[in-house]
Structure formats: C-alpha cells, structure tokens
Amino acid sequence: MKRLISILAILSVLVGSAAPQMTQEEKEAMKFADKLIKKMTLREKFGQLEQFITRRGVVTGPGGVKCDIESAVRKGEVGSFLSIRDRNEALRLQKMAVEESRLGIPLIFGYDIIHGCKIIFPENLAMSCSWNLDAIERSARIAAEESAATAIHWTFSPMCDISFDPRWSRVSEGAGEDPYLGAKIAAAMVRGYQGDDLSAQNTIAACIKHFAAYGAAQAGKDYNTVDMSELMFRNLYLPPYRAAVDAGAVTVMSSFNDFKGVPASGNKWLLYDLLREELGFRGFVVSDWNAVHEMIIHGVAADGKDAAELALKAHLNMDMLGGDYIAYGEQLVKEGRISEKLVDELVREVLAVKYRLGLFEDPYRYGKQDLSKVYYLPENMEFAREVAAESMVLLKNEGVLPLQKGVKIALIGPFADAPKDQLGAWRGLGDEKRSITFRTALEERFGKENVLYTKACECGKYADKILEGGIEEAVKIAEQSDIVLLSMGLSGWHSGESRSRAEITIPAPQQALLDALKNTGKKIVVLLSTGRPLDIRNEVEKADAVLLTWHSGTMAGPAVADLVSGDKNPSGHLTMSFPCSVGQVPVHYNSKNTGRPPKSQFKAQGYSSSYVDIQNAPLFPFGHGLSYTEFEYSDLKVLTPTVELGGVVKVSVKVTNKGKVAGDDVAQLYVHDLVAETTRPVRELKGFERLSLKAGESKVVEFEIPTSELAYCHSDLSWKADKGDFHVWVGADSYASLKGKFTIK
Ligand code: NOJ
C-alpha cells in the first residue's frame, strides 16, 4: 500500500496535477452506458463510433463508397452527424434513430461553432486581445444558447493550439502565442459552452482541439508535420489543452498532423498515455475530418482496416467521416486484432457523454426553444459590440484618433462595407445580412453626408485587384474630405483552415491604393482587417494611425464607430507578435536567451543570435496596445521577496491614468527564472488584470502567483518549480521595464 501511495505521489509530480476523481454524475453515466452496452451487437457498437455528414441524403465512406443514410440511421450504424444546419432536419434524423433503430440510441449533432453561432463574435485570436475572460466565457455561452436551440449538442471548440507562425491561417482560431493566457482562455470557453450542467437547455459539449501541437505545423503549412522536443511541447503547447481538460471538457479532437512520427489519430502515446492516463481525460475523442483514413496517406497504415485498427488501439473513440470503423470494425474484432473489451470502453465513453447531455432522457430537448427568444437577442448584440471594441488594438496613433466632431470622412477599401468578410472564418450559422458594416455604423455615427465611400479594391478568394476607376474615385473623395479611413488587409476567406500563406504582407493592389491616397497629403487611418499578424511595416510608416479591427463579427461596424469617434477608448492588447518580416517567423516574446543574445533587439551585432539585415524585435510585441489616454506604471513592490516552494509570490504595482479621458488597460506581469535546470524563456506571462481608470485615477493592482505556476518541464520530464532567484516585471506589454526580484527558498 505504502508503495502504491509513493508511486502515485511520484506520478503526480511527473504529471503536474493528479487526475481528478470521477464525479457522481460521471459514475452514473458510465453505469448507464455499461448496462446499454450489454444489449448491443458489435455492429451497433461500431455505429456509435462513427460520425457522418449528410450530402443530399447520401453518406460517403472511404473511397467514396456511398450508403443510404436513412437506413444506416435506422440500423443503428450512425452515432453522430456533423454540420447539420437545420434543426428540423436534425430532429427528423433524431426521431429516426430513437424511434426506428433497435435500441433507440440518440444521435449527437456536432457543428463548428467557433466564435459564435448566430451572432458572430470576433475571431478567436481577436477576442483573446481583449484579455477579458468573463467576456470570452459569455461569448461562448451565447454561442451555446443559440446552438442548443438549433439542436446542435456539440461544438468543435475551443481550439487550444498555441502557434508562433502567422503563415498558418488557423492562428485566427486560437488565442495566440502564450500558454498561460491560452490556458485561461481555453478554460473560460469550456465553462462558457458547458456551464456546470451539461444537460441544461442552454449548454453544449465542448471539444478540445486539435490534439496535439497542430499549431506547430512546419513552415506554417496547414496539416504539415510537427516535430519538437517533449520538453518544448510540455512547456509551450500542452498547457491550454490541459486547462481545458481540467475545466471538464467532455470531448477532444485528434489533430491531422503527426507527432513523434505517428499521426495523432493513431498515436497511443498522445491519446491514451498522455491524455487519459496523465491528464485524466474521461470523455471521448473524435478524429479530425477523415483523419483516420488519412493515416494511409501518411504512410503508417496499409488500408482502411489497418487505419481503423491503429486508431482503435490508440483509444480514438469516434471516426469523423472516414467510415473505416463501421466498415472494418467488426472484422477486426472477429479476426482478434481488436478486443471487444476495448470496443466496449470506447463505446462507453461516447454513450456517457450522450447521457450527460440528457439525450437519453429527452432526445429532443435541444430543439424545443422558441428561436425568436434565443437568436440575435438585443442584449447579446450589444454585448457583441462591446467585445468587438475590446478586441480591437490601436497599433499606432499620431494624434489623429479619435476623430474630431463634424469631420468629413473618406471611407475607402475592400472591407469597409463587407458584411461577410467581417464575420471571418467559421461563421457558424451567422447571417451576413445581420452584420452591421463599418460604413453603416460610421454613417449613423457621423451623419451620412459626412461619410463618402468607395470600395476601390477587391480582395478575397476570387480577386485581388483595383476596381476600374477605383483609385481615381478614392483620390477624389479623399480630396473632398478631412481624413481618410482606409480599410485594408485580408478578407474573411483568408482566415481559418487551409489558407496558409508564404507572404504575410497586404496584397499589392491595396498597397498601390495606400500610395495614391498618401499622395493626396490627407491624414490616413488604416483600419486593418485580418485574422493573423501581418508584416505591415509599409502601412505603419505611411499611415498616421493604425487600428487593428480584425474580423470582428456581426457588430464589427458599431465597434469601429465607437472607437474612432472616441465614444469608447481602445483597450485591446496583442496576444501574438506582429513580425517585421516573414523572415523573422517564428518570432515570439517567450523565446530563449541563447548563449549569444545581441545587446539590442533592434540592432544587428556580429556573432550574436540576430539578423544582419533586420532587427530581432518584432514590429509590435506581444501585449502591445495603445489607448487615447496614457497609463503610468509605478511603485512595483515585491511583497514577498522570499517565498517557500509551495507558497505564493505577491507583487503590487500602481497604475495611473495620466490622460484626460477614462480608459481600460491590461496590466501584465512577467517573470524570468534566472538559473534554471533547463534554458527558460526570457520572459513568461504569469498574471494579468484588465482595469478601468477614470482620468487622473490611480489603482494599486496586486498579483498573487502561486509558485506552482512557475513550474516547468525539467529534462527528466518532471513538472516542478526551481528554487532560486526570479526577475519580475509589470507593465502594459511584454517590454515592461518596471522590475523587481524574488527568491524561492
Ligand atoms: C476540420 C478542421 O480541422 C476542424 O477544426 C473541424 O472541427 C472539422 N474539420 C469539422 O468541421
């Protein structure tokens, strides 16, 4: 017994935190599932492990094999459907499964509700720049309410993939480059979707994705190989996934990439040893789209049967769309390649989630609400406007913003009146007709007569060009106006899956437009639409102000109007560095010192880790964000200069609004472990607080950092904090200069 206890203790040091005990609710769900499994045929079991999509009534299996969807449902050979948009269709299929299949097991409907369902919130990277966890949680809850009412039980969110590579278009779906902030956001989103009662009518199942390390695809190319040390993985990539597991997310999606040489969907180390044994995950794992079958193309499976065997043995519960489980599962068991016991375990976890969603009690519980009482509620639209404004980041301002009263505006560019683009990628069930564009909102705020508009340029999937006469018209209206608001960047189509780019500059036609407008001598405010950091050296140099407006969703327009008018004060801070040039990528604040750092990050220096042609520092660092007021950070006090291991480090700082208007800022605390067992990042975020200050007001912010938060993965893979000296900084970005020191004894 003693031995067992000490093994468990060692395990919990290695793991970081011991797996939580099973709750009563989980136990009950497992018990229910076990009873049901006893009645199921092998084929019905594999049915529960298969997810399909409807395409004009046919299901396509591996190699394009078609099957009749309705008879598959009736035979209990489908456990789940993906992307059903219409709740009547969902309820029709549910009825078929429940009333016509032998055991009446309900279906679970999944959909990509990534940053909103009907009301679309800013893309996730944008929302992370609000550093507002309550707002992020609420956005997920609103998305859950709207989804649940549409009979969607399950979202494939949050995406917990840390990434340092803006060539990868999917950075728009994540929370940026920092594991600490990423972990807090992942947990907030899980809380938002699932609440504390999964069976409630306004909560849905969350899905942690893409497990694992999908954001580290080599060269920023989507679906590409991932290869890194386990140390790096555990320190930088694992924390958000872990936080989402700890927050209780009931499903996980395996990623497309390989990891340690094995595709994630067949990677037992990832899906079983790490996820279940170490992190204590007890829900079910779904593959990404056809990812089981793609293991043949990866070159680790000979055929669909082989792929299914690999995935089943890796403990992957549900095959998304590939069809290999239902096609070959039974044979694999009959041939003794897979044990029925394993199949039962996999089925149990799927059924338990369905049970916890309340689907066995009432399979139709999610499609009953009066949609007019759930969709596009005015208070939720107002909230979307606030969160969009908080997500936008003022990158540069040379005294031109906020705009003067009565000013005449030339509003120009491809995204100024683009209801679809402003929704970004993964638009859920969002209706672009409900989008309020920059143009509409600015006309309302400043008067129609004061806003002259022309699109001038096209940018999107099918075109990247100046419209006929576009530049001439743009120059003409600029000359008739006091100021130019130039909406430029990348379209909604450029965000999300499969839009990797080797060049991260703004397309040439838009740059030509900027040059022409610059020649008019008018002041220019760039409204930057994008789902990823870009190399905007050129635009920053030429513009008088740059407001990063992202793809901010349904209420992007009113949020822009609120900020440029000064009705609201910008408060967003970057969560991903903006590189100077694509050649710097990956560039992130939490990098290592190396043995030869340059003296300055802004100047090249021989025989140092730097470039000879460009600065080391990014154009805008992690944490950067300006305001219409000025915040001063002073009086940093380390209240606990010496702390025991296991204790809490306390640091306080005074923040003063020195300007003439009220504003919000994000106070950020960074640490550095001076002498560690392995090389550590030069800075790591370990605390933050969003605060509102009236003009002239000061507040003392107190941070409490448990020493457990300073733990990291050592070379023997143990997770612990070091004793010794640490530096600590607090300020408004990752360059914060106010510094202190503490020691862990
Ligand atoms: C593929 C994407 O990688 C994943 O994020 C998404 O959830 C699934 N398709 C389902 O649409």
Task: Walk me through this protein's architecture.
The protein is of the alpha/beta class and 745 residues long. Helices cover 30% and strands 19% of the residues. It contains 20 helices and 30 strands. The strands form nine sheets. A six-stranded mixed sheet has the order 13-20-19-18-14-15, sandwiched between helices. A five-stranded parallel sheet has the order 6-5-4-1-12. Strand 2 and strand 3 form a beta hairpin. Helix 8 packs parallel to helix 9. The longest helix is centred in the N-terminal third of the chain and has 17 residues. The protein is globular and about 75 Å long. The N terminus is likely disordered. Bound molecules: 1-deoxynojirimycin. 1-deoxynojirimycin binds next to loops.
Q: C-alpha Rg, in Å?
A: 26 Å
Describe the strand arrangement of the main beta sheet, using strand numbers: 13-20-19-18-14-15
Binned, the helix content reads 25-40%
Query: Quick one: how many beta strands?
Result: 30
How many strands, what sense, and barrel or not for the largest sheet?
A: 6 strands, mixed
Name the assembly state. Answer: single chain
Spans of at least 5 consecutive residues with low confidence? 1-15
The fraction of residues assigned to DSSP E strands is 15-25%
The chain-level structural class is alpha/beta
Our measurement of the CA-to-CA distance between the termini, rounded to an integer number of angstroms, reads 32 Å
Give the integer mean of the pLDDT values. Answer: 95
What small-molecule ligands were found?
Answer: 1-deoxynojirimycin
Number of helical stretches of at least 4 residues: 20
Shape: globular
